Structure formats: C-alpha cells, structure tokens
C-alpha cells in the first residue's frame, strides 16, 4: 500500500518567504531551506528580521493571499490523488498554509504552528515533531505504508532517501550535484510518470 509524501513550497506553491521578501523589500528574507539546512537557525534569523522591521503575521498573510499554486500544481495533485493517498509534509505553518490549501482543493497537510502575540508579532514557532519529514515517513512505514516522496530542499532529503522511491523536484543545481543517485525532475508530467511507475 503506497502513500505519496510531497513538500509544499517550491513543489506545489512558490516559496512564501521569497514572496514576502519581494513584497516587503527585505532581500534577507529570501533565504530558504535551499540555502540553510538548519531550520531552527533559519527561523530564528527570519523572526529577528521581522521584529527589527516591526512586521507580523498579518503582513505575511496579506502576501500569502496573493500567492497562487504553481502552474499545473492543482491538476497534478488532483490526478495523483485519484491514483493514491497523498500527504503534504511541510515545515511551513498552519497560519501560512490554510489559504493555500483552499486553492489546492484541501489536500491533507502536516505542518507546524507559529506562536503569535495578541499584537500579531510572531514570537516563536512550535515544530510538530523533531526532523518532521523523515519522522513522519518512518511513522507511515511503521503502520504498513510504502512511501514515495518528493521535494526540492535540504530538509526534504531525509524523507526522500528513507522512502521506497524518492525524487527531487525543481531543486537546486547544488542539491542535485550532491545527491546524484536521486532522480531529479523539472515538470509535473515527469514527476507524475515517475510516481505512477512505483504504484
């Protein structure tokens, strides 16, 4: 019995922090898990910048409201969900993901939670579980699922390598070069065909 585990940002929707960096004019916020493998370090960096500029959850949600899924993402997801179970496993936060899930047809997503003060300041974050993508894939395997995983960043490598089949999608040249054993795809058709071959 197979279950497909997909990353969200960079795979189905544009990177939220990059969109917010462009909207706010703060280029430092363009740094993502493609650049920084240590997620806690990356989030602390982001929250410090938000505090410095007096920006909070509302400003980020205003940007997210204007983000659409990547062209073809919903169609890809719809077709995939007609074939097998799919879970999106993301290091984003429920407060960011909710409006995007509506645009994707409400797929199942496992993600994290922001800690937000009454004034809208993001004061911290709670990870659902340590090393969440890898841990979730191993948990699914422990209840009888063969996992097939795809993502684009450093924090996806654990779940990709732990799965029956794993694929890089729209990843960076460096990540592809560092992981030559992983098939890497650029289009949804390629990824869909590779997943179908495993079902």
Q: Count up the helices.
A: 9
- Tally of separate domains: 2
Order of helices and strands: EHHHHEHEEHEHEHEH
Describe the largest sheet: 7 strands, mixed
Q: Per CATH, what is the topology of the largest domain? A: Rossmann fold
Strand content: 15-25%
Give the low-pLDDT segments: none
User: Which assembly state applies to the chains in this document?
Assistant: single chain
Secondary structure: helix percent: 40-55%
Task: Tell me the total number of β-strands.
Answer: 7
CATH superfamily of the largest domain: HAD superfamily/HAD-like
Question: What is the top-level CATH class of the largest domain?
Answer: Alpha Beta
Q: Based on helices, strands and strand pairing, what is the structural class?
A: alpha/beta
The N- and C-terminal alpha carbons lie at a distance of: 8 Å
- Rg over alpha carbons: 16 Å
CATH architecture of the largest domain: 3-Layer(aba) Sandwich
| Cα shape | globular
Mean residue pLDDT:
96
Strand order of the largest sheet: 4-3-2-1-5-6-7
Task: Detail the topology: elements first, then pairings.
Elements: E1 2-6, H1 16-24, H2 39-53, H3 57-64, H4 73-83, E2 85-93, H5 94-103, E3 108-116, E4 122-126, H6 132-142, E5 146-151, H7 157-162, E6 165-169, H8 173-178, E7 184-185, H9 188-196
Parallel strand pairs: 1-2, 1-5, 2-3, 5-6, 6-7
Antiparallel strand pairs: 3-4
């Amino acid at each position: 019995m197979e279950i497909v585990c997909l990353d969200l940002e960079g795979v189905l929707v544009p990177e939220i922090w990059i969109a917010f960096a462009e909207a706010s004019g703060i280029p430092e916020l363009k740094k993502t898990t493609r650049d920084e493998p240590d997620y806690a370090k990356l989030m602390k960096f982001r929250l410090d910048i938000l505090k410095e500029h007096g920006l909070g959850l509302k400003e980020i949600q205003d940007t997210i409201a204007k983000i659409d899924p990547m062209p073809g993402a919903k169609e890809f997801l719809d077709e995939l969900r007609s074939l097998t179970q799919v879970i999106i496993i993301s290091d984003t936060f429920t407060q960011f993901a909710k409006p995007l899930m509506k645009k994707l047809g409400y797929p199942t997503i496992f993600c994290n939670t922001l800690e937000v003060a009454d004034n809208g300041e993001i004061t911290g974050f709670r990870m659902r579980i340590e090393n969440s993508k890898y841990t979730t894939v191993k948990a699914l395997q422990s209840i009888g699922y063969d996992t097939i995983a795809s993502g684009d960043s450093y924090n996806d490598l654990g779940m990709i390598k732990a799965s029956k089949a794993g694929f890089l999608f729209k990843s960076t040249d460096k990540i592809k070069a560092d992981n030559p054993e992983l098939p890497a795809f650029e289009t949804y058709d390629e990824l869909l065909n590779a997943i179908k071959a495993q079902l």
